[in-house]
Amino acid sequence: MAEEDKSKTPFVTHWGTFVYDVMPFGLKNAGATYQRAMVTLFHDMIHHEIEVYVDDMIAKSRTAQDHLTDLCKLFQRLKKYQLRLNPNKRAFGVTSGKLLGFIVSGRGIEIDPAKVQAKRSMPAPKTEKEIRSFLGRINYIAHFIAQLTATCEPLFKLLRKDVKIKWTEDCQRAFDKIKEYLLNPPILVPVDTGGKIIF
């Protein structure tokens, strides 16, 4: 942390009052600050050899040889800026893995089956809080559900000001349609740039 910012982080224990020397993740802007730092340090590699989202970092390559080259470049950059990786949270040379609640592989991006099962087994929401929670959970996988906003319209109507929560047949149909869609969620795949793209 910058010397002038340390005085903004005091905490009290029975041993005395202390300030942080390094930024802990619990501070309000720590995540955003860390992400900006990662983008600054790896700007030329992001979206090419690596992807970085806060403390998740993925090296991605098309071939095994490219992967070794990309890893060497990544490790050199980590060493240059004196950054360390957690040895318990790393895997090398894998063709698929979990990232931010999704399964990423050569096939594409899939919803983690455990997360799909949790959403499929949810009971219909009854309160405003439960409706908001359900919509928030579904929004996380919005890219996988066609016409999600239109499908959820009856649920959104329940959240308007001065509207009494009344679970209607339209609400139940929307809820069931989303759960049915999750029985066989699609896989998001990259566009094949070898052919023509028609817009």
Automatic annotation (TrEMBL):
InterPro entries in the record: DNA/RNA_pol_sf, Rev_trsase/Diguanyl_cyclase, RT_dom, Viral_Replic_Matur_Polypro
Domain Reverse transcriptase, residue spans: 13-104
Protein name according to UniProt: Reverse transcriptase domain-containing protein
Provenance organism: Fagus sylvatica (Beechnut)
